[in-house]
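Workshop exercise sheet. Pairs work together: one partner reads the sequence aloud, the other fills in the structure field after running the prediction. Swap roles for the next sheet.
Pair: D.N. / O.F.
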Amino acid sequence: MQKATLFLIVMFAGAAHGYSAQRPSAQDFTRFSGVWKMDPARSESAHQDVAIGVSTLVIRCNASEITIETTRKPEGDNPPFHEVLTFPLDGSERPNTGDGGAAVSGKLHMDGAKLVTETARNVHNSTVTTTYVHMLSPNGRVMTIDKTLTVQHGYQGMSANNSGHGKDVYVRVSK
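Structure field:
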């Protein structure tokens, strides 16, 4: 009985140590801070049917949260897009006001060296969710974002495509 109890204590202590060692610090998040400009030659969003135009991200980080400001100037007659979303570093969900006054809930977490943001908003009475996986190059000057957008439209069946994927590349303009 004592061996089993000692084994459980050692296993619990090891698991607790492993968990605390893996919790990201504010420094893990601050690596993504800076001003980032989309490289249209390497970005799928710049070449879709309705191209999003010039896109800039401003990422700010402090001890408790990350703010991601997105500005896009689409081509043609489409209106500009400007949105500032704030995500607590503890991974909790936070309500935000997005572009055009839309309610947007968002949360983030680290997946190894990757910053993952998740948002949900209502567009034309359908919930639209996004998952963006931000990855930095080894020198920290290039950020690739793998994007997944899903529309919860309620259609059923194998042919009901409700999600899209893409990859955009941003170059750091300043820290």
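Discussion prompt: The domain at 25-174 is CATH 2.40.128.20 (Lipocalin). What would you look at next?
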